[in-house]
Amino acid sequence: xxxxxxxxxxxxxxxxxxxxxxxxxxxxxxxxxxxxxxxxxxxxxxxxxxxxxxxxxxxxxxxxxxxxxxxxxxxxxxxxxxxxxxxxxxxxxxxxxxxxxxxxxxxxxxxxxxxxxxxxxxxxxxxxxxxxxxxxxxxxxxxxxxxxxxxxxxxxxxxxxxxxxxxxxxxxxxxxxxxxxxxxxxxxxxxxxxxxx
Length: 197
What we know:
By secondary structure, the protein is mainly alpha-helical.
């Protein structure tokens, strides 16, 4: 896939609601270089949020990178086939979510142990030993709270933290808007109670 000059990628940014005219509305299939440009711009904008999201589902960084590559290859094929360009942000999060769940199930099936603390160890900001101990205790408490949440509530929370709107979360997880709202309200209330207690 040809990469456009770096300065042209940085000049363009997509609005929060990503919508492009479909090939049918333009009367012909999109030119390959237009589709490449769209995929590259979306990759630049959403690679890190997608990686954070799939890692939050219990996958390693390596697995996350593989999933992101698959997602953007699938997006390119999707665009090449002239399929809908409406809400591509929601589309890539939904495909990422589905692929991450499949990968997690495969990892569990073959008994791989995922190192969820890897990111913690890499982020060394040299705090004092007391600060490190307090930070470790807080992180362990927060992780325990998150693990205690139902998986669907956790997924809602992570997707909301990545900036997805309620409607996009509902679409990604196959839930109603009301269920997303209840899950987020319930999760935040539990976290608040635990942090105060």
